[in-house]
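Is this the right way to post structure tokens for a design question? Let me know if I should format differently. Anyway, here goes:
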């Protein structure tokens, strides 16, 4: 699984944001000229990026990097629903290994974030952010595009925050799980703490 490093600043533009629904279809076979974030609402969907396969289930987030080959080999489940966001790549956006990302993080830039390609069980806050971006994109609000940019920035920062180890004092992190990451509690409490654990 790859990792993505990109600028999460408010000046990113959205090309589109929308809801998807299917009675059973393959993921389109394509190489996009934009980044694609998919949030799976219900059902399941197998998506390939180059030679890596991801099985999306409710609550999962998949970041498909611009310029890479994306396709499907199996139909999604009937009635599957998802939300998606498309936004342009910047020259400094990079697709890399986790080790390369950690090395890069030693030279921090103001709004640079790193996140895995696939996050499982991203949580209700992520779902709400994606939903607000989609609704905002199509709303009649005067400043809807500016609002969408701010929310996209917040989403990228939240996805990055979710993928940080507990050692860096994050209150929520993810556990390595198969080809992705998932939230993993270590103790039930009113203020549940989450930590990174190897699979």
């Amino acid at each position: 699984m790859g990792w993505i490093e990109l600028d999460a600043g408010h000046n990113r533009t959205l090309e589109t944001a929308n809801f998807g629904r299917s009675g059973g279809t393959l993921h389109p076979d394509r190489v996009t000229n934009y980044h694609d974030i998919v949030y799976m609402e219900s059902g399941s969907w197998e998506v390939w990026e180059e030679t890596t396969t991801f099985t999306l289930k409710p609550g999962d987030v998949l970041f498909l990097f611009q310029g890479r080959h994306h396709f499907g080999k199996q139909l999604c489940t009937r009635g599957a629903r998802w939300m998606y966001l498309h936004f342009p790549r910047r020259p400094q956006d990079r697709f890399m290994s986790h080790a390369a990302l950690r090395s890069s993080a030693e030279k921090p830039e103001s709004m640079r974030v790193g996140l895995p390609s696939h996050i499982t069980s991203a949580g209700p806050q992520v779902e709400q952010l994606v939903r607000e971006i989609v609704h905002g994109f199509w709303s009649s609000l005067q400043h809807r595009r500016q609002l969408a940019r701010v929310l996209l920035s917040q989403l990228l920062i939240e996805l990055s925050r979710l993928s940080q180890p507990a050692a860096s004092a994050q209150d929520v992190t993810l556990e390595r799980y198969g080809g992705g990451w998932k939230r993993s509690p270590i103790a039930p409490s009113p203020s549940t703490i989450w930590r990174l654990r190897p699979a």
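Format looks fine. Someone answered above. Worth noting: Confidence is low (pLDDT under 50) at residues 167-181, 185-199. The CA atoms of residues 101 and 114 lie 7 Å apart.
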